[in-house]
Protein: AbiJ-NTD3 domain-containing protein
Amino acid sequence: MSDFFTSFGPSPFNLDVGDAPIPPQKVSVRTLGHAIEEALMYYTRVALETVLADELDLDWQQAEPPTTAESKRTLIAAYITGWGVPQMASLARRIVTELDIPDVYLTELTGLLATYDAGGGVHGATKYLIFAANGPKPQIVLRDAMNNDIEIVENAEYCLVLEDPIPAEGLRFSRLVTWWREREQLADAVTDRQVALTLHDRLRASLESDAERVVFDTYATRYKESFDIPALVPQVYLHYDPYHQRARRASSGTSPLTRQRMDFLLLFSDRRRVVIEVDGKHHYAHNEKASPELYAKMVAEDRRLRLAGYEVYRFGGAELFRETSKSMVGEFFEELSARMS
Structure:
């Protein structure tokens, strides 16, 4: 096994304790990999094997055991080979916060994390994903307000809830398929593709319009090549108002939470979140007449989402009923995926 990062040359960052650290200019697999190595050089070889396997709980995916790695650097590289920036940034954060390493070894890593955090995206972990509602609105209570633990006490059968933390690399369809197999207690004899088809049917049942189905079905064709791509998750709760809209308007005349559900959500990483909305007449018209008030609410919510770090894209309902609609939507997803990779 050869050194994975040694070909990249010496670190461009000064690790001298007496000098101010030079802020890293670019966060990449190369720079993060080098900084992770430099931080973990603090440990002896024997201790490093324990830290990687037990304290950081990383998966060893090589045929040979860790003890055969030629050096500490090759040992580290074997654990993180093939990782993308989000996964490596997540590991870097754990190294900084969970391990007792002197600051001098962390200079480069903390600088890169500061640059990464300043680069945009949504901050904060995803704790619950409530999605694909195909019936009455779920009734949610705070079971433990101190820990922000929720419980669906009514209509839980009409929605899906993913309580697993979203990994650094985002929510891949393959992970959703595994979750669905466990949730539905499907036998091992059922193939992943069969599991995926039942999941697809359940997600599709939550869609509210033919225009949404065009977007969903077009994206689903991408799963034929690989399940290891971001899942297109429909009808995701973004906000939650315990009152129904009609009751809210009757009591106060307004709602503090305008857009409670997103039509679709793509999680390219734990921070890079893309919202896709399909606009029908109800987004901009009332009683068949254009409504400046509805339009203003829509664009105001888009601004709020973007400031929070989400990316928002909209399809007009009319553009999804043309002969070229599927190819247009397909090209959009190709370009979006290329830009996010």
Observations:
- The CA atoms of residues 49 and 291 lie 63 Å apart.
